[in-house]
Amino acid sequence: MLSWEESQSISSMRCDRAWVEVDVGAIAQNVREIQHLLSPKTDLMAVIKADAYGHGAVTVAQTVLQAGAKWLGVATIPEGIELREAGITAPVQVLGATYTPDQLRAMVRWRLEPTLCTPKQAFVFSETLSDHAYSVPVHVKIDTGMSRLGAPWQEAAEFVQLVDRLPHLELSSIYSHLATADSEDPTVMQLQHQRFQTAIQQVQETGIALPRLHFANSAATLSDRQLHYDMVRVGLGIYGLYPAPHLRSRLKLQPALQVKARVTHIKAISAGTGVSYGHRYIADRDMRIAVVGIGYADGVPRNLSNQMQVLIRGQQVRQIGSITMDQTMLDVSNIPDLELGEVVTLLGQDGNNSITADDWADKLGTISWEILCGFKHRLPRIAVGQTLECWEQAAT
Ligand SMILES: *Cc1c(COP(=O)(O)O)cnc(C)c1O
């Protein structure tokens, strides 16, 4: 057992180097903003797969449920179990594929609701539950054009009939996923929507009572109310990012995640000195540089080397040389009185300046989703509120 003093000193060390700060107030506010777009009959599923896009699944789950989200969406069974072990009781749908009896037993044990994509899977699941007295809620996924999970939309009615007929399976919802909802060209999205409508109509014609229907991700939630149905599945928007620039005008979202690190070393170098592996930066004048305790093993993409800005005291500061596994160098010539332990904002807001996941994504030719879930677990997740405490402890 650690003594109280020892555990205090370890917890203060949690942010002595680098950390991710999660503004739970921003997440709650984003949930409320998104709910303003929804009709009262449409529920919000907060998609919190991949550790809530890097924000910390349990904290985010508690926050979004308190702010009014009704459902949680995860990709994997362990992600769902983590929520249950934390005492979260809200309905949790597993959006990813599952197909073995063991997986189903785990989902039943932890009250996680599976996605059904094929007749084979439906037979296996129904058979696995044969000694159960009750039915398990399942979600039928149909592929309307994403070409990922789901039964072909042309076969949806037949598939739903099968699920409806098989013992121990209770049809909880029918859903599909959009491939191009963030595009300014709505053609494919409209085609997918027509297919969804056709499939639903064919289900209805079989006489089966329609269960809950859902179709929209963040982009579709922001772009078109017709796509909302009974529930929307929102990931990115909850974390305060827009799926595409043209969707910005629909509502005001606030990024919740910030990445911060401390200055761990400061030195002067003379003109002509090479910096970091490969000397991919050569000082063009005498300068002062700072070493910051964060690197690519924390999830700062090495491809940002020599092209990243960070914020110190609200000012933009240039990153120089190759980003290394644990450390990164900055040109701090413009801050002569910089001190050890000062906080560097890599992503987030400092004074009037901010750097967003979209800024990084643009530089890297990728999307903000990938940036957010790229931060490693070496970075402690600090919910704002605890941060101040952390700061003070580390500063004293
Ligand atoms: C990840 C995911 C979402 C959320 O997507 P965002 O674009 O982040 O809103 C919704 N539905 C499914 C099936 C997903 O896999």
UniProtKB/TrEMBL annotation:
**Cofactor requirements of the protein:** pyridoxal 5'-phosphate
Pathway as given in its UniProt record: Amino-acid biosynthesis; D-alanine biosynthesis; D-alanine from L-alanine: step 1/1
This protein's species is: Laspinema olomoucense D3b
Annotated Alanine racemase C-terminal domain ranges read 256-384
Q: Does the keyword Cell membrane apply?
A: no
Q: What is this protein called?
A: Alanine racemase
Source taxonomy lineage?
Bacteria, Bacillati, Cyanobacteriota, Cyanophyceae, Oscillatoriophycideae
User: Which EC number(s) are documented for this chain?
Assistant: 5.1.1.1
The active site annotation covers K49, Y277
Reaction catalysed by this chain?
A: L-alanine = D-alanine
The UniProt record gives the binding positions of substrate as R148, M325
Query: N6-(pyridoxal phosphate)lysine (modified residue): where?
Result: K49
Entry's family note: Belongs to the alanine racemase family.
Instruction: Relate the protein's function as given in its record.
Output: Catalyzes the interconversion of L-alanine and D-alanine. May also act on other amino acids.
- A GO molecular function for this record? alanine racemase activity
Query: What Pfam families does the record tag this protein with?
Result: Ala_racemase_C, Ala_racemase_N
Its keywords, alphabetically, are: Isomerase, Pyridoxal phosphate
